[in-house]
TrEMBL record:
It comes from the Eukaryota. SMART domains: SET (SM00317). InterPro entries: SET_dom (IPR001214), SET_dom_sf (IPR046341), SET_domain_protein (IPR053185). This is SET domain-containing protein 5. It comes from Metarhizium acridum (strain CQMa 102).
């Protein structure tokens, strides 16, 4: 399936000797040396640990080991073994890294066509094709944990491994490279938003979390590879399970299983765990924390075309028809404070051709009751949202809101703010920083806005 050959500018590498379809297991290999990933051992102790294992190898394996590349110079054999381990070790047993004579020959590319993984079930390091690989094409993996922008990738690769990457992604023309960097930075930003708040975040604002994952999936599908899709689908499944939505959760889990099988093999530990989850999702520790989206596994609408199924699956909004009245109970259109995007969250906006932030991807209106009015250098409200959560609203409009008639800002009145966003104040609790007067209305007559 492959041969180790000389690769110009890279030393040795793995070259496909035949066409390799996506999902194919390219190799499966046991380590010849293992070392702890983190240790309190001194350099001398670590070198002795490696040396003892090298001495136990056959002469052929010792020669193959010594032929592996290093980044730094060395003074003796023990130091050389240490440098080889530092430069080439790949994940092995839990808490360990290992040297694999075949897998360690695989070179890096930021647009890698293969995925490497430690398979704890079979105790071997595996490599699978992320996409179809042509005969004669070099097999590559990604050496780093996260897919950073081009500048960061080049710097970290040079610092850690001593080379400058010249793969297709790093060699893009400047305009295309900038577009690629924007996509990768959005992925990292979405990862942060999805993980923010942990279980509490999933419970307090599931729709926003689900839409973040939806956005992440669509960005992954734009390339250079979709190795992050299984984890994204698993995140979506957790959100659905936490709110009792077994119909959507089952689809998400099945997609995560398919992705893991493709990139890790049917015998991987991750696949085993996902299959167990799919068998009975109601046994998951998240199930039952909320039942606001409760469905049975078979409650999937029938007769939907692929696009309609995706809209249903991700709970995407349907455009409201002109003149159609909004439902005040709709938390997508009228969210509570935790359901508002943060003002640093760019995923809610389109970008215009100049790269500046443009129009919102959707519309929403934040409703709250005024509980207290304070006016010093600027106007401040203490307000309660539809769930009774208290928060501050500070006016950063021209004049700081001091031009508003006092008859408009009495306690008990309702304030409505279009496209309101959360803001983290350095001097107070998180609240709303109001800057655009045209986006706020105050209803003089008190109205009941509490959730039913």
């Amino acid at each position: 399936m492959y041969e180790i050959q000389d690769v110009p500018g890279k030393g040795k590498g793995l070259i496909a000797t035949q066409a390799i379809p996506k999902g194919t297991r390219i190799l499966s290999e046991k380590p010849i040396i293992t070392v702890p990933k983190q240790t309190t051992m001194s350099i001398e102790q670590f070198a002795r640990l490696v040396s003892r294992q090298v001495d136990a190898l056959s002469k052929n394996h010792q020669q193959e080991l010594l032929a592996l590349p290093t980044v730094h110079t060395f003074n003796d054999d023990a130091q050389k073994y240490l440098e080889i381990t530092r430069a080439n070790a790949l994940p092995a047993n839990d808490g360990e890294a290992g040297i694999f004579l075949q897998a360690c020959r695989i070179n890096h590319a930021c647009d890698n066509n293969a995925h490497n993984n430690w398979n704890k079930n079979i105790k071997q390091h595996t490599v699978h094709a992320l996409r179809d690989i042509e005969k004669g094409e070099e097999i590559t993996i990604y050496y780093m944990g996260a897919y950073w922008n081009r500048e960061t990738r080049i710097r970290r690769l040079q610092e850690r491994f001593g080379f400058i990457c010249s793969c297709g992604l790093c060699s893009l023309p400047p305009d295309q490279s900038q577009e690629s960097d924007k996509r990768l930075e959005k992925l990292l930003h979405l990862d942060d938003l999805i993980g923010r708040g942990g279980v509490l975040g999933v419970l307090s604002n599931p729709l926003q979390k689900l839409h973040h994952v939806d956005h992440r999936v669509r960005l992954h599908e734009q390339g250079p590879n979709d190795s992050g899709l299984p984890q994204a689908y698993f995140f979506a499944a957790q959100i659905a399970i936490a709110h009792g939505d077994l119909a959507r959760a089952r689809i998400f889990v099945d997609r995560a299983v398919d992705g893991r099988i493709c990139f890790e093999g049917d015998d991987s530990h991750n696949v085993s765990e996902l299959k167990a989850l799919a068998h009975d999702m109601s046994e998951d520790e998240l199930y039952g924390l909320s039942m606001k989206w409760k469905t049975a596994v078979n409650d999937v609408p029938q007769g939907l075309d692929p696009a309609e199924l995706e809209d249903w699956l991700w709970r995407r909004e349907k455009p409201r028809q002109p003149g159609q009245l909004a439902d005040l109970r709709d938390r997508t259109t009228f969210p509570a404070f935790p359901g508002l995007p943060h003002d640093r969250d760019e995923s809610y906006y389109f970008e215009d051709p100049s790269g500046l932030m443009g129009l919102s991807r959707r519309n929403w209106c934040f409703l709250a009751e005024i509980r207290q009015v304070t006016a010093f250098t600027r106007l401040q409200f203490e307000i309660e949202d539809v769930d009774g959560q208290s928060l501050p609203l500070f006016f950063y409009t021209d004049g700081g809101g001091m031009g508003l008639e006092r008859a408009q800002v009495k306690e008990g009145f309702t304030v409505a703010i279009l496209q309101a966003k959360q803001h983290s104040f350095a001097f107070d609790r998180p609240g709303i920083r109001h800057e655009q007067p045209t986006r706020m209305k105050v209803r003089r007559t008190p109205v009941t806005i509490r959730a039913v």
